[in-house]
Design goal:
Largest sheet of chain A: 8 strands, mixed
Strand content of chain A: 25-35%
Strand order of the largest sheet of chain B: 2-1-3
Number of helices of chain A: 10
Number of strands of chain A: 12
Shape of chain A: globular
Oligomer: heterodimer
Order of helices and strands of chain B: HHHEEHEHHHHHHHHHH
Order of helices and strands of chain A: EEEHHEEHEHHHEHEHEEHHEE
Helix content of chain A: 25-40%
Radius of gyration of chain A: 21 Å
Largest interface: A-B, 37 and 31 residues
Amino acid sequence: MNPENILEVKNLKVRFPIHGGIFLKKVAEVNAVDGVTLELKQGETLGLVGESGCGKSTVGKAIINILKFNSPDAIIEGEVLLKTDNGIIDLVKLSTSEMRKHRGSIQMIFQDPYSSLNSRLSVGQIIAEPMLYHTNMTKTERLEKVSWLLEKVGLNPDQSKRYPHEFSGGQRQRIGIARALATNPKIIIADEPVSALDVSIQAQVINLLQSLQKDFDLSLLFIAHDLSVVEYISSKIAVMYLGNIVELGKGADIYHNPIHPYTKALLSAVPLPDPNRKGKERVILKGDVPTPLNKPSGCGFRTRCPIARDECALKVPPLELKRDEQFAACPYTN
Amino acid sequence: MSENKNTEIKEETVKKVSVSILQKRWRKFKTLKRGYISFLVIVTAFLLSFILPLFVGKSALLVHYNGSYYFPLFNTYQATDLGQTRDPYGEANYRFLKKQYSEENQGNWVLMPFYPFGPNENLLNELEGNPPHPPSAEHWAGTDDRGRDVFARLLYGFNIGLSFALVVTFFSYIIGIAIGALLGFYGGKVDILGQRFIEIWGTLPFLYVIIIISSIINPNFLLLVVILTLFNWIGMTYYMRGEFYREKARDYVAAAVSMGAKNRIVIFKHILPNSLTPVISYAPFAIVANIFSLVSLDFLGFGLPAPTPSWGQLMQQGLTNIDYWWLIMTPLIAMFLTLLMITFIGEAIREAFDPKVYSRLR
């Protein structure tokens, strides 16, 4: 493991078996994540983009090891290496109870601020809960920290006695962020944290995340489907398509000089708030995303790729270094 | 005027302390007058029914005899102890004593409850003619075929019936919630095997089991509670299983797991409080059903042992003595009113807990 990295994901594969028939035999498998390799440096933000169903949320959930909670028969392969004070551990291999001990250092922000807060608990209880499991703080210490965190995320500390239903979506997402910060984690996985919010609120929450990242020296895995949001916050971007990473590089490079044909198509789909800028030609993809139940052989993108050749069906193209720190999984483009 | 309004609004916003969803629902419940009034009436009546001997009963509250005081509610006194002259055998009859003392006029007196007849006492030696006696100013609902006061039996029967229903509902809910929660939370093989077990258990014919058991041993309150609980928990498991399945997939549960909560905490602190809507909204109807079960069992003669005042037993008497209308009408009216009011409560609770109003997570 590279000493600069705090988290390394190596060849992560997640498969969901589908059972059918009278005896519930395994009839098929969904290859949600098909060999993803990622690195996250201390204090860095890695953006993970892709359209719905490409497996980006599954990657996040596999890293934080909560996939098995709701899908006990999911098959997870590969390594998720986390650097801790006591050496490197592989989160995939940990048992549920061993994993519990490390949960304080890797936290998650959820997509839907309405369903991610328990409506029966007050805001103070929600934010204090992780401290119950990972620290030995007394009640007053916890209350102090809750007030401090509420202030950090831009809420009034007096509001800790209120209940989630008294807050707006943006405020609730701030509560979720405060909860994720409660145990001083090193890594935060933000699973589409702004997708459920209004555009004006999105900017506020993203700015908040950015400033908190500096304050807390956080490493952030920022999962989103909106390239412009990711470009703004991320130092590095990984683009996913159908369970694979197709392009990886610095944020500005990916945004301005995409290499992989899928990234090009994705970028040309980003709406520009400028009616006079018509210069760029749009890349319109043919067809639909193939189902991960029945992935095309070789390159997953070949069925819709404008530059596909016969050879693309033969083997999965590996990520190759194309330019300065910019990798793409396509041998036929530069 | 407008200034006034402003200050009012300000005060209101200042007063507006944070309200949990449960408090919100309770407030909504209070606005549903029919249900809320029924709730107050039933709760008051039920609480009062535990101190019923103060209002209805054969024992005097206080006896003053030859300069000393006696408390027949807590002690039993022999008729001779208090100088009873009419039928001075066995336990004292305080109605006789009251009459006797006032005739003697020696400074002795008896303070009787408001309605001075007990539920199990035989009034044949005080009443003329053959039982059942029709309703009169003294006996508001007449007497039954053994000369016992029907009104007193109805009131004591209310306490027994409602207590029975509450206890059965409580225990069957605890079992049902626990098992349903386990099935829904763990899913997989636990769920499949558990469901099959519940299906097999559910096919046991409840009435036959009761008949068989009560032909072997004389059932008492506790045994009936146990038997009914064993058959009643099944219904709740389906709701809880479904609730747990649904809530388990929500993000707040994933958040709890990802912050390191143990399963026990996830179940009790997170999922259970969010799954109580069916529990609370079905409880009044379950209570109604359990009151009804006890009445049916008593009616069939498999219920509580003989002298216990019960509505079902009164109805059964009414059926055998079909000419004496009060024997069947009074328990029917009492049951109708009780069940109606509890159903009103249930409706109001259902309305107040309607998830569409304050959707459970918003």
